[in-house]
């Protein structure tokens, strides 16, 4: 077990390159099995979620190889092997194996997924979609069994706008007979990225990026090459870090349009931001003003950036209210921030942040991926050294985190936990 040590107070300066999007990659890798020949995925982030998914593909007979940030998947010999718990539980996105295997084999047996503990993360809308396509779905001893004689296109109205359900239904429907219409679909850029890959394979998909997606099933899908879009959440994390501590920071290899809601809020706070074609320049200000944030489905403010944003608000003048309408329990970072001197109250699905508080280095624990990102930014801002455990969550989603922060002038390093510390972390 390791901890990240962050010595605070160093201004950030320079350029950081953003990697491929985690939340695309975790759907693109399972999608590759739908093809009948080799799929090459470029700009793949080197993160543990991708490694886990690649190992699941190997478990069902795919051949996976890497060359730098390119992954090649040869799905020629895949078989519908059950994937019970174990590694499936390590991440939420293992649920994309359900849609991909159902689409490919008309059957699948997959353990219930894991992922960040953000409160309940139901998959009823995914199941509703699979059933509408003709699958019989049962939950037996903690695993979901899907079986269909035939998949037939259907009209599916999502009761909640869900990224996961939209993608999973697309994966299951691309080879179904006839037309599938997903109504009230999510519009996140990662969904468009998955549809782009499927279209390159030969799928017929229209309307992605709107709330009605139409899919005309095809019999076969072929191999192709695809490059993943930049990670808007990783980019947002560095942008928020720069808004807190940046003298002059350039966040490069991004799609600024994907970050509009964040940019608008940061400008409202007084952060200087210039957006170019594929980069954003950020300069912090000593006089930041508080704002209120409400997370919403895309293009609203991303729930994944809510936790890092909470930290920035501890520095601003006034009181900011952060309301998470997607995950109402996504506030586990708040107790840890309080240990560092933050003045934050959680009421229902909102956090009230009283600003202009100086943070102090402390021993804190990352309870989930973006809580970890938030604590790292807090560490960069704090006086003294912050020790962050729970880094396995952060490693699920941030490629070369230390290297990138060091390039910007931060002072961060990892240390192994002593046996005593490891015991304490396990029992806390
Ligand atoms: C819309 C939204 O902001 N989605 C975010 C959500 O995606 P993620 O894929 O985790 O969640 P969904 O988009 O699927 O779910 C959105 C909401 O719908 C609910 N739900 C979902 C599926 C279902 O079958 N039943 C159901 O009730 C969820 O509990 C949640 O409140 O978290 C990801 C990781 O933090 C983010 O990258 C996504 O941008
Ligand atoms: C919560 C996240 O990941 P996951 O849905 O994979 O747990 C995230 O990307 O912020």
UniProtKB/TrEMBL annotation:
It catalyses: phosphoenolpyruvate + UDP-N-acetyl-alpha-D-glucosamine = UDP-N-acetyl-3-O-(1-carboxyvinyl)-alpha-D-glucosamine + phosphate. InterPro entries: Enolpyruvate_Tfrase_dom, Enolpyruvate_Tfrase_sf, MurA_subfamily, RNA3'P_cycl/enolpyr_Trfase_a/b, UDP_GlcNAc_COvinyl_MurA. It is an enzyme of class 2 (transferase). Pathway: Cell wall biogenesis; peptidoglycan biosynthesis. Its main location: cytoplasm. The active site is at residue 116. Phosphoenolpyruvate binds at residues 22-23. One of its GO terms (biological process) is regulation of cell shape. Keywords: Cell cycle, Cell division, Cell shape, Cell wall biogenesis/degradation, Cytoplasm, Peptidoglycan synthesis, Pyruvate, Transferase. It is found in: Cytoplasm. UDP-N-acetyl-alpha-D-glucosamine binds at residues 92, 121-125, 304, 326. It comes from the Bacteria. GO terms for cellular component: cytoplasm. One of its GO terms (molecular function) is UDP-N-acetylglucosamine 1-carboxyvinyltransferase activity. Cell wall formation. Adds enolpyruvyl to UDP-N-acetylglucosamine. This is UDP-N-acetylglucosamine 1-carboxyvinyltransferase. It comes from Alteribacillus persepolensis.
